[in-house]
Design a protein that fits this description.
The protein is an alpha+beta fold. It has 17 helices and 15 strands.
Protein backbone atom coordinates (compact mmCIF):
# COMPACT_ATOMS: atom_id res chain seq x y z
CA UNK A 1 0.00 0.00 0.00
CA UNK A 2 1.33 3.42 -0.96
CA UNK A 3 1.47 6.22 1.58
CA UNK A 4 -0.44 9.14 0.03
CA UNK A 5 0.37 12.83 0.40
CA UNK A 6 -2.18 15.51 1.18
CA UNK A 7 -3.44 17.72 -1.63
CA UNK A 8 -2.17 20.78 0.27
CA UNK A 9 1.31 19.28 0.52
CA UNK A 10 1.29 18.42 -3.19
CA UNK A 11 0.23 21.96 -4.12
CA UNK A 12 2.87 23.53 -1.86
CA UNK A 13 5.72 21.40 -3.20
CA UNK A 14 5.31 19.72 -6.59
CA UNK A 15 2.88 22.21 -8.14
CA UNK A 16 4.07 25.48 -6.60
CA UNK A 17 7.71 24.64 -7.36
CA UNK A 18 6.94 23.74 -10.98
CA UNK A 19 7.47 19.96 -10.95
CA UNK A 20 4.02 18.89 -12.18
CA UNK A 21 4.04 16.95 -15.48
CA UNK A 22 0.26 17.22 -15.86
CA UNK A 23 -0.48 13.48 -15.71
CA UNK A 24 -3.63 13.98 -13.62
CA UNK A 25 -3.32 10.89 -11.41
CA UNK A 26 -3.67 13.16 -8.36
CA UNK A 27 -7.30 13.77 -9.37
CA UNK A 28 -8.17 10.05 -9.44
CA UNK A 29 -7.47 9.05 -5.84
CA UNK A 30 -10.61 8.32 -3.86
CA UNK A 31 -11.89 11.55 -2.34
CA UNK A 32 -9.39 13.74 -4.24
CA UNK A 33 -10.20 17.45 -4.14
CA UNK A 34 -8.05 18.26 -7.17
CA UNK A 35 -8.99 19.03 -10.78
CA UNK A 36 -6.71 19.62 -13.77
CA UNK A 37 -6.55 22.90 -15.65
CA UNK A 38 -4.70 24.07 -18.76
CA UNK A 39 -2.72 27.17 -17.76
CA UNK A 40 -1.91 30.27 -19.80
CA UNK A 41 1.63 28.91 -20.15
CA UNK A 42 0.30 25.90 -22.03
CA UNK A 43 0.71 23.14 -19.42
CA UNK A 44 -1.70 21.19 -17.23
CA UNK A 45 -1.66 21.70 -13.46
CA UNK A 46 -4.05 20.68 -10.67
CA UNK A 47 -6.07 23.16 -8.67
CA UNK A 48 -8.25 22.67 -5.65
CA UNK A 49 -11.93 22.31 -6.41
CA UNK A 50 -14.11 25.08 -5.01
CA UNK A 51 -16.44 22.34 -3.74
CA UNK A 52 -13.66 20.65 -1.76
CA UNK A 53 -14.61 19.92 1.84
CA UNK A 54 -11.97 17.38 2.85
CA UNK A 55 -8.56 16.08 1.80
CA UNK A 56 -8.25 12.30 1.51
CA UNK A 57 -4.75 12.25 0.08
CA UNK A 58 -3.40 11.71 -3.44
CA UNK A 59 -0.53 10.11 -5.38
CA UNK A 60 1.88 11.81 -7.78
CA UNK A 61 5.00 10.62 -9.66
CA UNK A 62 6.99 13.60 -8.35
CA UNK A 63 5.79 13.49 -4.71
CA UNK A 64 7.68 11.64 -1.99
CA UNK A 65 5.81 8.36 -1.38
CA UNK A 66 8.89 6.50 -0.13
CA UNK A 67 9.10 4.48 -3.35
CA UNK A 68 10.84 5.06 -6.68
CA UNK A 69 11.12 3.45 -10.11
CA UNK A 70 13.48 0.77 -8.76
CA UNK A 71 11.21 -0.37 -5.94
CA UNK A 72 8.08 -0.20 -8.11
CA UNK A 73 9.64 -2.29 -10.89
CA UNK A 74 11.10 -4.70 -8.32
CA UNK A 75 7.58 -5.35 -7.03
CA UNK A 76 6.14 -5.73 -10.53
CA UNK A 77 8.82 -7.67 -12.38
CA UNK A 78 11.44 -9.30 -10.12
CA UNK A 79 9.59 -12.65 -9.96
CA UNK A 80 8.96 -12.93 -13.70
CA UNK A 81 10.59 -15.93 -15.40
CA UNK A 82 13.88 -15.08 -17.17
CA UNK A 83 13.82 -11.46 -16.03
CA UNK A 84 17.15 -9.63 -15.98
CA UNK A 85 18.22 -6.33 -14.48
CA UNK A 86 20.82 -3.69 -15.28
CA UNK A 87 21.19 -0.51 -13.25
CA UNK A 88 21.05 1.86 -16.22
CA UNK A 89 17.87 0.38 -17.76
CA UNK A 90 16.11 -1.47 -14.93
CA UNK A 91 14.36 -4.82 -15.45
CA UNK A 92 14.00 -6.42 -18.86
CA UNK A 93 13.10 -9.84 -20.21
CA UNK A 94 14.14 -9.17 -23.79
CA UNK A 95 15.20 -6.16 -25.85
CA UNK A 96 14.48 -5.93 -29.58
CA UNK A 97 15.04 -3.58 -32.49
CA UNK A 98 12.86 -3.71 -35.59
CA UNK A 99 9.53 -2.83 -37.11
CA UNK A 100 6.07 -4.10 -38.01
CA UNK A 101 5.99 -5.81 -41.39
CA UNK A 102 2.26 -6.38 -41.76
CA UNK A 103 -0.40 -3.85 -42.69
CA UNK A 104 0.24 -0.11 -42.52
CA UNK A 105 1.23 0.11 -38.86
CA UNK A 106 4.76 1.23 -39.70
CA UNK A 107 3.63 3.65 -42.39
CA UNK A 108 1.11 5.28 -40.07
CA UNK A 109 3.35 5.34 -37.00
CA UNK A 110 6.11 7.72 -35.96
CA UNK A 111 8.69 4.95 -35.86
CA UNK A 112 8.39 1.20 -36.46
CA UNK A 113 4.66 0.93 -35.76
CA UNK A 114 5.12 -1.30 -32.74
CA UNK A 115 2.83 0.42 -30.23
CA UNK A 116 -0.30 0.37 -32.39
CA UNK A 117 0.41 -3.21 -33.52
CA UNK A 118 0.75 -4.48 -29.95
CA UNK A 119 -2.43 -2.68 -28.86
CA UNK A 120 -4.26 -4.26 -31.80
CA UNK A 121 -3.13 -7.72 -30.67
CA UNK A 122 -4.40 -7.06 -27.14
CA UNK A 123 -7.80 -6.01 -28.50
CA UNK A 124 -8.01 -8.87 -31.02
CA UNK A 125 -7.13 -11.48 -28.41
CA UNK A 126 -9.62 -9.97 -25.92
CA UNK A 127 -6.87 -9.41 -23.37
CA UNK A 128 -8.12 -5.84 -22.99
CA UNK A 129 -11.46 -4.24 -23.75
CA UNK A 130 -10.08 -0.73 -24.14
CA UNK A 131 -6.85 1.06 -25.00
CA UNK A 132 -6.24 4.51 -23.54
CA UNK A 133 -3.97 6.60 -25.74
CA UNK A 134 -3.63 10.10 -27.23
CA UNK A 135 -5.75 11.21 -30.19
CA UNK A 136 -6.75 14.45 -31.83
CA UNK A 137 -9.27 16.17 -29.60
CA UNK A 138 -12.98 16.45 -30.27
CA UNK A 139 -13.23 18.96 -27.45
CA UNK A 140 -15.06 22.23 -27.99
CA UNK A 141 -12.33 23.91 -25.93
CA UNK A 142 -10.38 25.74 -28.65
CA UNK A 143 -7.03 25.55 -26.88
CA UNK A 144 -6.93 21.73 -26.79
CA UNK A 145 -5.69 19.98 -29.96
CA UNK A 146 -4.86 16.54 -28.51
CA UNK A 147 -6.18 14.60 -25.53
CA UNK A 148 -6.31 11.13 -24.03
CA UNK A 149 -9.19 9.05 -25.33
CA UNK A 150 -10.41 5.45 -25.34
CA UNK A 151 -10.35 2.96 -28.23
CA UNK A 152 -12.27 -0.31 -28.26
CA UNK A 153 -11.63 -1.48 -31.85
CA UNK A 154 -8.96 -1.34 -34.55
CA UNK A 155 -10.59 1.51 -36.44
CA UNK A 156 -10.57 3.73 -33.34
CA UNK A 157 -7.05 2.58 -32.52
CA UNK A 158 -5.71 3.92 -35.83
CA UNK A 159 -6.69 7.45 -34.79
CA UNK A 160 -4.06 7.31 -32.04
CA UNK A 161 -1.02 6.40 -34.14
CA UNK A 162 1.92 8.84 -34.10
CA UNK A 163 3.72 10.72 -31.33
CA UNK A 164 2.16 13.95 -30.06
CA UNK A 165 4.56 16.49 -28.57
CA UNK A 166 1.75 18.22 -26.78
CA UNK A 167 0.51 18.44 -23.15
CA UNK A 168 -2.16 15.94 -22.20
CA UNK A 169 -3.71 14.69 -18.97
CA UNK A 170 -5.27 11.39 -17.89
CA UNK A 171 -7.89 13.01 -15.65
CA UNK A 172 -11.01 12.30 -17.77
CA UNK A 173 -10.00 8.79 -18.83
CA UNK A 174 -9.12 7.78 -15.26
CA UNK A 175 -12.58 8.92 -14.23
CA UNK A 176 -14.04 6.65 -16.93
CA UNK A 177 -11.97 3.70 -15.71
CA UNK A 178 -13.19 4.28 -12.18
CA UNK A 179 -16.83 4.32 -13.29
CA UNK A 180 -16.78 1.74 -16.11
CA UNK A 181 -15.94 -1.92 -15.70
CA UNK A 182 -13.55 -3.57 -18.16
CA UNK A 183 -9.89 -4.34 -18.81
CA UNK A 184 -7.72 -1.41 -19.90
CA UNK A 185 -4.26 -0.90 -21.40
CA UNK A 186 -2.70 2.55 -21.00
CA UNK A 187 -0.05 4.10 -23.27
CA UNK A 188 1.99 6.91 -21.73
CA UNK A 189 5.38 8.48 -21.09
CA UNK A 190 7.47 7.19 -18.14
CA UNK A 191 6.28 9.63 -15.45
CA UNK A 192 2.63 9.02 -16.42
CA UNK A 193 3.13 5.25 -16.16
CA UNK A 194 4.86 5.65 -12.79
CA UNK A 195 1.85 7.66 -11.64
CA UNK A 196 -0.48 4.93 -12.91
CA UNK A 197 1.45 2.29 -10.94
CA UNK A 198 1.21 4.40 -7.77
CA UNK A 199 -2.53 4.67 -8.40
CA UNK A 200 -2.84 0.92 -8.96
CA UNK A 201 -0.98 0.19 -5.71
CA UNK A 202 -3.17 2.59 -3.73
CA UNK A 203 -6.62 2.02 -5.30
CA UNK A 204 -8.01 -1.50 -5.82
CA UNK A 205 -10.31 -0.47 -8.69
CA UNK A 206 -7.34 0.65 -10.80
CA UNK A 207 -5.28 -2.43 -9.95
CA UNK A 208 -8.15 -4.61 -11.14
CA UNK A 209 -9.02 -2.71 -14.32
CA UNK A 210 -5.65 -1.50 -15.66
CA UNK A 211 -4.10 -4.77 -16.80
CA UNK A 212 -1.31 -3.54 -19.09
CA UNK A 213 0.94 -0.48 -19.15
CA UNK A 214 2.84 0.59 -22.27
CA UNK A 215 5.48 3.29 -22.11
CA UNK A 216 6.96 5.51 -24.80
CA UNK A 217 10.61 6.52 -24.39
CA UNK A 218 10.61 10.21 -23.53
CA UNK A 219 12.96 13.10 -24.27
CA UNK A 220 10.69 15.59 -22.52
CA UNK A 221 7.16 16.99 -22.56
CA UNK A 222 6.23 20.23 -24.31
CA UNK A 223 3.69 22.99 -23.66
CA UNK A 224 1.02 23.94 -26.20
CA UNK A 225 3.24 26.86 -27.21
CA UNK A 226 5.65 24.49 -28.96
CA UNK A 227 2.94 23.59 -31.46
CA UNK A 228 1.97 27.29 -31.72
CA UNK A 229 5.51 28.23 -32.74
CA UNK A 230 5.65 25.49 -35.39
CA UNK A 231 2.27 26.41 -36.90
CA UNK A 232 3.29 30.08 -37.09
CA UNK A 233 6.15 29.07 -39.39
CA UNK A 234 3.70 27.61 -41.91
CA UNK A 235 1.97 30.98 -42.36
CA UNK A 236 -1.41 29.35 -41.74
CA UNK A 237 -3.83 30.61 -39.05
CA UNK A 238 -4.12 28.03 -36.29
CA UNK A 239 -7.90 27.84 -36.71
CA UNK A 240 -7.30 26.66 -40.30
CA UNK A 241 -5.24 23.64 -39.21
CA UNK A 242 -7.29 20.44 -39.46
CA UNK A 243 -4.50 17.95 -38.76
CA UNK A 244 -0.94 18.25 -37.46
CA UNK A 245 1.91 15.73 -37.62
CA UNK A 246 5.00 16.22 -35.42
CA UNK A 247 6.74 13.23 -37.03
CA UNK A 248 6.25 13.30 -40.81
CA UNK A 249 8.46 10.68 -42.46
CA UNK A 250 10.39 11.93 -45.49
CA UNK A 251 11.57 9.33 -48.06
CA UNK A 252 15.29 9.08 -48.84
CA UNK A 253 16.29 10.87 -45.64
CA UNK A 254 17.66 9.54 -42.37
CA UNK A 255 14.99 8.34 -39.96
CA UNK A 256 16.08 11.12 -37.60
CA UNK A 257 15.74 13.74 -40.34
CA UNK A 258 11.94 13.86 -40.28
CA UNK A 259 9.59 16.77 -40.85
CA UNK A 260 6.48 18.48 -39.54
CA UNK A 261 3.31 18.58 -41.62
CA UNK A 262 -0.08 20.24 -41.47
CA UNK A 263 -3.33 19.62 -43.31
CA UNK A 264 -5.56 22.68 -43.66
CA UNK A 265 -9.33 22.76 -43.56
CA UNK A 266 -9.14 23.13 -47.36
CA UNK A 267 -7.29 19.75 -47.53
CA UNK A 268 -3.99 21.39 -48.47
CA UNK A 269 -0.97 19.58 -47.06
CA UNK A 270 2.24 21.42 -46.20
CA UNK A 271 5.50 19.80 -45.11
CA UNK A 272 8.65 21.36 -43.69
CA UNK A 273 11.87 19.59 -42.74
CA UNK A 274 12.37 20.00 -39.00
CA UNK A 275 15.90 21.33 -39.43
CA UNK A 276 14.39 24.39 -41.13
CA UNK A 277 11.95 25.09 -38.29
CA UNK A 278 12.89 27.17 -35.25
CA UNK A 279 12.37 25.34 -31.97
CA UNK A 280 12.73 21.73 -33.13
CA UNK A 281 16.24 21.27 -31.67
CA UNK A 282 15.33 19.27 -28.56
CA UNK A 283 18.71 19.95 -26.99
CA UNK A 284 17.66 23.56 -26.47
CA UNK A 285 14.92 22.66 -23.93
CA UNK A 286 12.45 25.08 -25.52
CA UNK A 287 8.87 24.96 -24.16
CA UNK A 288 9.88 22.05 -21.97
CA UNK A 289 8.17 21.27 -18.67
CA UNK A 290 10.48 21.86 -15.71
CA UNK A 291 9.45 18.48 -14.30
CA UNK A 292 11.24 16.73 -17.17
CA UNK A 293 14.60 18.10 -15.99
CA UNK A 294 14.03 16.25 -12.69
CA UNK A 295 12.97 12.87 -14.07
CA UNK A 296 15.49 10.01 -14.15
CA UNK A 297 13.46 7.49 -16.18
CA UNK A 298 14.22 7.64 -19.91
CA UNK A 299 12.64 4.39 -21.08
CA UNK A 300 9.62 3.74 -18.83
CA UNK A 301 11.11 1.31 -16.33
CA UNK A 302 7.81 0.66 -14.53
CA UNK A 303 5.83 -0.32 -17.65
CA UNK A 304 5.09 -3.86 -18.88
CA UNK A 305 6.70 -2.92 -22.19
CA UNK A 306 8.42 0.18 -23.57
CA UNK A 307 8.89 1.49 -27.12
CA UNK A 308 11.33 4.04 -28.50
CA UNK A 309 13.28 5.02 -31.59
CA UNK A 310 16.38 3.09 -32.63
CA UNK A 311 18.68 6.08 -33.00
CA UNK A 312 21.61 3.86 -34.00
CA UNK A 313 23.76 4.04 -37.17
CA UNK A 314 22.64 0.63 -38.43
CA UNK A 315 18.98 1.71 -38.47
CA UNK A 316 19.06 5.41 -39.37
CA UNK A 317 19.27 4.85 -43.14
CA UNK A 318 15.70 3.53 -43.18
CA UNK A 319 13.45 6.60 -43.28
CA UNK A 320 10.40 4.51 -42.31
CA UNK A 321 11.70 4.24 -38.74
CA UNK A 322 12.76 1.45 -36.39
CA UNK A 323 11.57 0.68 -32.88
CA UNK A 324 13.58 -0.28 -29.82
CA UNK A 325 11.41 -2.46 -27.58
CA UNK A 326 12.09 -3.34 -23.94
CA UNK A 327 9.80 -6.15 -22.72
CA UNK A 328 9.27 -6.95 -19.05
CA UNK A 329 5.92 -8.76 -19.06
CA UNK A 330 6.06 -12.47 -20.02
CA UNK A 331 2.77 -12.52 -21.95
CA UNK A 332 3.68 -9.43 -24.00
CA UNK A 333 7.05 -10.98 -24.76
CA UNK A 334 5.24 -14.05 -26.11
CA UNK A 335 3.15 -11.80 -28.38
CA UNK A 336 6.34 -10.24 -29.78
CA UNK A 337 7.96 -13.65 -30.32
CA UNK A 338 4.84 -14.98 -32.02
CA UNK A 339 4.80 -11.93 -34.31
CA UNK A 340 8.42 -12.62 -35.27
CA UNK A 341 7.73 -16.32 -35.93
CA UNK A 342 4.73 -15.46 -38.12
CA UNK A 343 6.83 -12.84 -39.96
CA UNK A 344 4.49 -10.06 -38.95
CA UNK A 345 7.37 -8.40 -37.15
CA UNK A 346 10.91 -7.89 -38.40
CA UNK A 347 12.88 -7.89 -35.15
CA UNK A 348 16.34 -8.76 -33.86
CA UNK A 349 17.78 -8.87 -30.33
CA UNK A 350 19.45 -5.70 -29.08
CA UNK A 351 22.05 -5.49 -26.31
CA UNK A 352 21.64 -3.26 -23.28
CA UNK A 353 24.72 -1.38 -24.46
CA UNK A 354 23.06 -0.55 -27.78
CA UNK A 355 19.81 0.32 -26.01
CA UNK A 356 21.69 2.92 -23.98
CA UNK A 357 23.53 4.19 -27.07
CA UNK A 358 20.20 4.60 -28.88
CA UNK A 359 19.11 7.10 -26.21
CA UNK A 360 22.56 8.44 -25.33
CA UNK A 361 21.53 12.09 -25.08
CA UNK A 362 18.57 11.29 -22.86
CA UNK A 363 20.59 9.13 -20.49
CA UNK A 364 23.36 11.75 -20.28
CA UNK A 365 20.89 14.56 -19.53
CA UNK A 366 19.05 12.51 -16.87
CA UNK A 367 22.10 11.05 -15.19
CA UNK A 368 25.08 13.39 -15.41
CA UNK A 369 22.92 16.48 -15.97
CA UNK A 370 20.34 15.54 -13.32
CA UNK A 371 22.99 15.17 -10.62
CA UNK A 372 24.25 18.67 -11.36
CA UNK A 373 20.75 20.17 -11.41
CA UNK A 374 19.99 18.52 -8.05
CA UNK A 375 23.24 19.99 -6.70
CA UNK A 376 22.15 23.47 -7.81
CA UNK A 377 18.78 23.09 -6.08
CA UNK A 378 20.32 21.77 -2.87
CA UNK A 379 22.89 24.57 -2.86
CA UNK A 380 20.02 27.07 -2.83
CA UNK A 381 18.11 25.10 -0.16
CA UNK A 382 15.18 24.68 -2.57
CA UNK A 383 12.65 21.86 -2.40
CA UNK A 384 12.94 19.36 -5.22
CA UNK A 385 11.71 15.78 -5.85
CA UNK A 386 13.62 12.86 -4.33
CA UNK A 387 15.50 11.01 -7.06
CA UNK A 388 17.47 7.77 -7.38
CA UNK A 389 20.65 9.69 -8.13
CA UNK A 390 22.48 11.83 -5.59
CA UNK A 391 23.15 15.53 -6.06
CA UNK A 392 26.68 16.05 -7.31
CA UNK A 393 28.50 19.06 -8.70
CA UNK A 394 29.73 18.32 -12.20
CA UNK A 395 33.51 18.54 -12.39
CA UNK A 396 33.53 19.15 -16.14
CA UNK A 397 32.99 22.91 -16.16
CA UNK A 398 31.99 23.04 -19.83
CA UNK A 399 29.31 20.36 -19.42
CA UNK A 400 28.06 22.11 -16.28
CA UNK A 401 27.65 25.36 -18.21
CA UNK A 402 25.75 23.54 -20.97
CA UNK A 403 23.23 22.17 -18.44
CA UNK A 404 22.91 25.51 -16.67
CA UNK A 405 22.29 27.31 -19.95
CA UNK A 406 19.61 24.72 -20.83
CA UNK A 407 17.87 25.58 -17.57
CA UNK A 408 17.77 29.22 -18.61
CA UNK A 409 16.40 28.37 -22.08
CA UNK A 410 13.67 26.26 -20.50
CA UNK A 411 12.73 29.03 -18.09
CA UNK A 412 12.72 31.82 -20.68
CA UNK A 413 10.74 29.89 -23.31
CA UNK A 414 8.27 28.49 -20.77
CA UNK A 415 7.50 31.94 -19.37
CA UNK A 416 7.64 33.82 -22.67
CA UNK A 417 4.52 35.51 -24.00
CA UNK A 418 5.98 35.64 -27.51
CA UNK A 419 4.91 32.20 -28.74
CA UNK A 420 2.76 33.90 -31.38
CA UNK A 421 5.47 36.39 -32.32
CA UNK A 422 8.34 34.41 -33.79
CA UNK A 423 10.77 37.30 -34.35
CA UNK A 424 10.30 38.58 -30.78
CA UNK A 425 10.69 35.04 -29.40
CA UNK A 426 13.92 34.49 -31.35
CA UNK A 427 15.35 37.79 -30.08
CA UNK A 428 14.45 36.76 -26.54
CA UNK A 429 16.17 33.37 -26.85
CA UNK A 430 19.07 34.21 -29.15
CA UNK A 431 21.62 35.08 -26.41
CA UNK A 432 21.14 31.64 -24.82
CA UNK A 433 21.14 29.80 -28.15
CA UNK A 434 24.46 31.47 -29.01
CA UNK A 435 25.93 30.30 -25.71
CA UNK A 436 24.66 26.78 -26.42
CA UNK A 437 26.25 26.78 -29.89
CA UNK A 438 29.57 28.01 -28.54
CA UNK A 439 29.67 25.45 -25.73
CA UNK A 440 28.74 22.55 -28.03
CA UNK A 441 31.12 23.50 -30.81
CA UNK A 442 33.45 20.65 -31.70
CA UNK A 443 37.02 21.56 -32.60
CA UNK A 444 38.43 20.66 -36.02
CA UNK A 445 40.95 18.28 -34.44
CA UNK A 446 38.24 16.41 -32.58
CA UNK A 447 36.06 16.16 -35.72
CA UNK A 448 38.98 14.63 -37.62
CA UNK A 449 39.69 12.18 -34.79
CA UNK A 450 36.00 11.17 -34.61
CA UNK A 451 35.98 10.53 -38.36
CA UNK A 452 39.10 8.35 -38.05
CA UNK A 453 37.47 6.33 -35.25
CA UNK A 454 34.31 5.82 -37.30
CA UNK A 455 36.37 4.65 -40.28
CA UNK A 456 38.28 2.19 -38.08
CA UNK A 457 35.05 0.84 -36.55
CA UNK A 458 33.45 0.40 -39.96
CA UNK A 459 36.51 -1.33 -41.31
Amino acid sequence: MISKVSADSLMDTVVKRGYCSGCGVCTASKGSVLKMKLTAKGNYEPHKSSLASSDSGVVCPFADHGVNEDSISETLFSNIDRIKKKKEVGHYRNIYAGFVGEGEYRKNGSSGGGVSWLCAQLLNEKKVDYVIHVKQSNSTEKRVFYEYNISSNISELKEGAKSRYYPITLEKTLEKIKNSNGKYAIVGVPCFIKGIQLLRFSEEVFMKRIVHTISIFCGHLKTTHYMDVLINQFDVPQKEVAKFDFRHKIPNRLASDYGTSILTNQKKKKVKVNKTLFGTNWGLNLFKLKACDYCDDVIGETADISFGDAWLPQYLEDSMGTNVIVVRNKYLDEIIKKGIEEQKLSMEPLSTEDLIKSQAGGFRHRREGLKHRLFLKDSNNEWRPQKRYKAEKLKNEKRARIYENRIRMQEVSFNSRNHNNLSALMRELQPFIKVNSRLNKVSLAKRIWNKIKRTINQG
